[in-house]
Write a sequence for this structure.
C-alpha cells in the first residue's frame, strides 16, 4: 500500500513538473511571438474539458498593438488519432487595435514573405475541429474615438486531408464586415479561397473612411503559388494618411479608390514576379486616374515594376499659394520601379501639362493656354533620405498669351532643362517672346546657399521690327530705331527673395527717331545695380554722333548716375557728372549737379562755348542776315513739370566781329523812313566791338533776346560809333517746325511735324 502511494505521488510530481515546464515553454513561446502582459485566472477541469474563466494580454508587432481579452473559454481535447483540440468555445472575445503610428517606435522586423503552407501543416493540425466565438467585440481607432464592432466567429477544421472553414461577421451602426476563408488539402497541393467585404465606410483614425472587398483563389505547391482569381476593390473617403499632410489643401483628395486585379493563371514563386493590374481613382478639387501594370517581386527583397503606366489629373479650378489655375490637365505616361529603398520614375514621350489659364495675382502675371512638354523626365527618390532626390527634366513650356503690366501681351516660350540633386536645383534654357527678344537663362540654387540667376541677352538687332518696342509696354511710343545692336548680361541672387541684381546692357550703332528728332551713332553702355529696393543705373560714355530736331546738333556726350527706389522709379536722384552737346561749331556744357526728379522744379547751369555766328546765320531763316563772330555764355536751365525754362541767361561775343543785314525788305522800308534808312546803312557792314545779350525761354517755347551792340560801319558817317539795343522774340518750336517742313526730313518726322503744327493751330 505504501509503495502504491509513493508511486501515485511520483506520478503527480512528474505531471506537476511537466505542467510547470509546459507553462514556462508556452510563456516563452508567446513572448517570442510578441505577446505581452499575459494573465489568466479561474482555470479548472470539468466535464472532460478545460475551463478558463478569463485571459488577457497584448501582442505588439511592427504594424501595431493588439489587446485581447477572453471570457468563458471551454477547451475540449480528444485523444482519438492522437491528442488534439476537439472543440474551443469562447463566450466573449474582445480585441482592441492600435496602429503603429500611435505607439512608440520599434525596431524594424525582418522582411516578411508569404510562407509555404507545408511549413504551417504542423500548427494547422492543432486547430480545433470546432471553434466558435459567441460574442466578438473589436475596437478600432476611429475619428476622435473608438469604433466598436460586434459579431461572431465560426471555424471548423478536419485533418487528413486538412480542411479549414472560417466565417467572420461584424456589425456596428449600419457598418458590416464579413469574411470567409476556406483552406483544403488536395493531394500535394493546398487550395485557399478567401473573401472580405466592407460595404459601408468604416471611419478609421489615421486612415479615413474605408470600404471595399477582397477576393482570392490561390493554389499552393511548396514555394509556388498559383493565382486562379483575385481582386481588391477599396475606397478611402476623407483620407487621413500621413503622406498627404504636407500637401496643400487644394491638392488633398476627398477620396481615393483602388482596384487591383492580378492576372489569372499567373504563377508566383515569390522569387519571380507576379503581375497586377492596378487602377486608382482620385476624387476632389483635383480628380484623376492612375492605370498601370505592377509586377511584384519578393526576392531578394520586396520590389515592384510599374509598366504601361498612365496618370491623368484634372482640375476645373485650383487656387494654391497665390497661384490660380483654370482647366488644368496632366497626362503622364510613365515607367517606374519601387522598392524598400526608393522610387525611380521615367515619363514617356507624350507627358504633358496644360492649363486654360494660370495666374499669379500678387505678381500681376497671367498666362493663357499654357502647355508644358515633360517628355523623358526622370526621378529617383530614396525613401531613407528624401533630400537626396534626383530629378532630370527636359522642359518645353509655352503660353499663347502672357500678360503683365510691364510687357505687351503676346506668346512666350521656354526651352531648357531642370535638374534637382543632392547639391541643389539648376534650371537652364532659352526664354523668348514671339517678338524675338531671346534670352539665355541659368538658374542655380545650391543647398543651404543663396540662389543665383544669370540672364544673357542674345544679340538684338534693331531694325524695322524692333523686339524691344514689341516686348515692353512702357517702351516710348515716339522712339523707333532703324539700326542698332543691343547686348547685355544680368546676374541676380537671393535667398527668400531677390537680394542683389547687377549687370550691364549696351546699345551700339543706334540710329532712329525720337519724337520729331532724328539721331545717329547712339552708344549707351549701362551698368545696372539693384540691392533690395535700391536701384542704380550708370553710364560713363553716353554718346550720340548727330541729333537733328530741325537744327543739326552733335555730338552729344554724357556721364550720368541715377539712383532711385522700386516704389518710385521716376522720382530718384540724377547725378550728372558731365554732359556736352555740339552746337553750331561750338558746344553747350552742363555743369555737374545732382538733380532730384521728385521735385517739381530742377535747375542746371549751362555753359556756351565757341558758338559761331556764321553757322547760326546759315541755319537761321532770316533773309539777308550774315556775320562772323564767336559766342560764349552762361545761363540757368530749369525743368518745371517737364517744361524747359531759362531765366537770366547771358551771351557775349569773344572779340570784335561783323554783322551784315542786307535784306530787300529793309531797303524798301528805309526808302520812306529816314530813321530806318540810317539803320540800314549802319547794318550794311556793322563791325562790332561788343555783342552781348540777356536770354530767357518760357514754358510756351518763346525765346527772348535782349541784344546790345556797340560798333561802327566804316562807310557810315566816317565810322561814327553806333550803339544799338534790340529785343528779339522767336517761337522756337514753331521755328524748328518750319525748318523741318522746308528741309529734307524722314517721312515719319514729316508726319509728326505736320500733326504738331495742326495741333498748335487748333484753338
Amino acid at each position: 500500500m505504501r509503495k502504491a502511494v509513493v508511486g501515485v505521488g511520483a506520478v503527480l510530481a512528474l505531471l506537476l513538473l511537466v505542467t510547470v515546464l509546459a507553462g514556462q515553454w508556452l510563456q516563452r513561446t508567446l513572448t517570442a511571438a510578441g505577446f505581452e502582459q499575459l494573465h489568466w485566472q479561474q482555470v479548472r477541469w470539468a466535464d472532460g474539458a478545460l475551463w478558463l474563466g478569463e485571459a488577457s494580454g497584448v501582442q505588439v508587432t511592427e504594424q501595431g498593438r493588439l489587446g485581447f481579452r477572453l471570457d468563458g473559454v471551454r477547451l475540449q481535447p480528444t485523444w482519438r488519432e492522437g491528442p488534439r483540440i476537439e472543440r474551443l468555445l469562447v463566450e466573449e472575445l474582445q480585441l482592441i487595435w492600435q496602429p503603429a503610428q500611435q505607439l512608440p517606435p520599434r525596431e524594424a522586423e525582418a522582411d516578411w514573405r508569404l510562407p509555404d503552407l507545408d511549413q504551417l501543416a504542423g500548427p494547422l493540425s492543432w486547430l480545433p475541429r470546432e471553434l466558435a466565438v459567441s460574442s466578438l467585440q473589436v475596437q478600432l481607432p476611429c475619428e476622435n474615438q473608438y469604433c466598436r464592432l460586434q459579431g461572431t466567429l465560426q471555424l471548423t477544421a478536419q485533418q487528413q486531408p486538412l480542411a479549414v472553414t472560417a466565417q467572420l461577421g461584424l456589425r456596428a451602426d449600419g457598418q458590416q464586415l464579413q469574411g470567409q476563408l476556406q483552406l483544403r488539402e488536395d493531394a500535394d497541393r493546398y487550395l485557399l479561397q478567401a473573401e472580405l467585404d466592407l460595404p459601408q465606410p468604416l471611419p478609421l483614425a489615421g486612415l479615413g473612411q474605408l470600404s471595399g472587398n477582397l477576393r482570392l483563389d490561390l493554389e499552393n505547391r511548396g514555394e509556388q503559388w498559383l493565382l486562379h482569381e483575385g481582386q481588391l476593390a477599396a475606397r478611402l473617403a476623407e483620407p487621413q494618411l500621413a503622406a498627404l499632410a504636407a500637401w496643400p489643401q487644394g491638392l488633398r483628395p476627398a477620396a481615393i479608390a483602388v482596384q487591383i486585379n492580378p492576372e489569372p493563371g499567373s504563377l508566383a514563386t515569390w522569387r519571380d514576379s507576379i503581375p497586377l493590374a492596378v487602377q486608382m481613382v482620385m476624387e476632389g478639387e483635383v480628380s484623376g486616374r492612375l492605370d498601370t501594370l505592377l509586377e511584384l517581386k519578393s526576392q531578394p527583397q520586396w520590389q515592384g515594376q510599374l509598366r504601361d503606366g498612365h496618370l491623368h489629373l484634372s482640375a476645373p479650378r485650383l487656387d494654391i499659394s497665390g497661384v490660380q489655375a483654370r482647366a488644368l490637365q496632366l497626362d503622364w505616361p510613365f515607367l517606374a520601379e519601387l522598392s524598400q529603398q526608393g522610387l525611380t520614375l521615367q515619363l514617356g514621350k507624350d507627358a504633358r501639362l496644360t492649363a486654360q489659364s494660370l495666374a499669379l495675382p500678387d505678381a500681376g502675371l497671367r498666362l493663357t493656354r499654357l502647355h508644358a512638354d515633360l517628355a523623358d523626365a526622370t526621378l529617383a527618390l530614396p525613401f531613407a533620405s528624401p533630400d537626396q532626390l534626383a530629378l532630370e527634366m527636359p522642359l518645353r513650356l509655352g503660353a499663347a498669351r502672357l500678360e503683365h503690366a510691364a510687357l505687351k501681351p503676346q506668346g512666350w516660350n521656354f526651352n531648357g532643362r531642370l535638374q534637382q540633386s543632392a547639391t541643389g536645383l539648376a534650371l537652364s534654357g532659352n526664354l523668348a517672346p514671339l517678338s524675338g527678344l531671346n534670352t539665355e537663362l541659368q538658374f542655380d540654387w545650391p543647398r543651404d546657399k543663396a540662389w543665383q540667376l544669370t540672364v544673357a541677352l542674345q544679340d538684338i538687332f534693331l531694325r524695322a521690327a524692333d523686339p524691344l518696342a514689341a516686348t515692353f509696354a512702357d517702351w516710348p511710343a515716339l522712339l523707333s530705331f532703324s539700326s542698332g545692336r543691343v547686348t547685355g548680361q544680368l546676374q541676380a541672387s537671393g535667398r527668400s527673395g531677390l537680394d542683389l541684381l547687377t549687370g550691364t546692357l549696351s546699345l551700339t550703332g543706334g540710329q532712329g527717331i525720337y519724337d520729331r528728332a532724328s539721331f545717329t551713332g547712339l552708344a549707351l553702355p549701362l551698368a545696372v545695380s539693384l540691392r533690395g529696393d535700391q536701384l542704380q543705373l550708370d553710364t560713363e560714355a553716353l554718346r550720340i554722333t548727330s541729333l537733328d530736331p530741325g537744327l543739326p546738333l552733335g555730338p552729344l556726350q554724357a556721364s550720368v548716375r541715377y539712383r532711385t527706389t522700386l516704389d518710385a522709379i521716376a522720382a530718384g536722384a540724377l547725378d550728372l557728372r558731365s554732359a556736352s552737346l555740339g552746337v553750331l561749331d561750338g558746344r553747350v556744357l552742363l555743369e555737374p549737379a545732382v538733380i532730384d526728379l521728385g521735385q517739381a522744379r530742377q535747375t542746371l547751369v549751362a555753359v556756351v562755348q565757341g558758338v559761331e555766328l556764321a553757322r547760326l546765320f546759315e541755319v537761321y531763316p532770316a533773309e539777308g542776315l550774315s556775320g562772323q563772330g564767336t559766342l560764349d555764355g552762361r545761363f540757368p536751365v530749369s525743368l518745371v513739370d517737364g517744361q524747359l525754362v531759362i531765366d537770366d541767361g547771358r551771351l557775349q561775343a569773344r572779340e570784335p566781329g561783323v554783322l551784315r543785314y542786307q535784306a530787300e525788305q529793309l531797303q524798301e522800308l528805309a526808302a520812306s523812313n529816314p530813321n530806318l534808312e540810317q539803320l540800314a546803312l549802319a547794318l550794311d557792314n556793322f563791325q562790332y566791338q561788343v555783342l552781348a545779350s540777356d536770354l530767357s525761354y518760357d514754358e510756351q517755347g518763346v525765346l527772348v533776346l535782349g541784344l546790345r551792340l556797340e560798333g561802327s560801319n566804316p562807310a557810315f558817317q566816317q565810322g561814327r560809333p553806333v550803339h544799338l539795343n534790340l529785343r528779339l522774340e522767336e517761337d522756337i518750336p514753331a521755328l524748328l517746325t518750319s525748318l523741318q517742313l522746308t528741309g529734307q526730313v524722314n517721312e515719319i518726322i514729316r508726319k509728326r511735324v505736320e500733326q504738331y503744327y495742326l495741333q498748335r493751330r487748333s484753338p
About this structure: Confidence is low (pLDDT under 50) at residues 1-26, 108-112. The radius of gyration is 48 Å. Helices lie at 2-32, 121-124, 613-619, 664-670, 674-683, 732-742, 747-761. Residues 36-103+118-185 form one domain.
